[in-house]
Amino acid sequence: MFDYGVGGQERKLDIANEAIADIPINRTMMVQKLTSQPPLRPQIVQGLVNVDDVFNHYKPNVDVEFSDEDGSIVGENLQFKNVGDFTKKGLINQSEFLSGLNVQADDLQKFMRSLKSNKILKAALDNPEAKMAFLEAVAGLINELDENK
Q1: Is 13 within the bounds of a domain?
Q2: Could you state, in chain order, the average pLDDT of each consecutive group of 10 residues for the chain (149 residues)?
Q3: Where are the alpha helices (DSSP H) in 59-127?
């Protein structure tokens, strides 16, 4: 009995021939319809010789809805012009909502790094009185920023 794997064509695992590379174990493959309109009927398109031609012909895009921290829905349209648009960076670059979340995540990570490396701040947060004073100062800064918008 043969051992077979997923590839561009059926192939034995012990034979090295050209096929689509297997998806690495630490990756996830997502399959989704990338157009809002269903095709009326299948059509044969000739002359598409590379991936860019396929993207230019079909112009895949999808309407997505994101939910923000308040629970309200934010709708956006994501367009895919090349394979790079499917990466994390490609999705973030074309979405205002995801860009905002990315900036927020970067800020929180910087704050976490400063918490880990700043011994004075760590000591202040360990002391309940100093922690309350710090939180009150931060709340005062937030109020001042809100007032000056």
Answers
A1: no
A2: 52 55 72 70 81 87 90 92 90 94 93 86 86 90 84
A3: 88-93, 96-117, 119-126
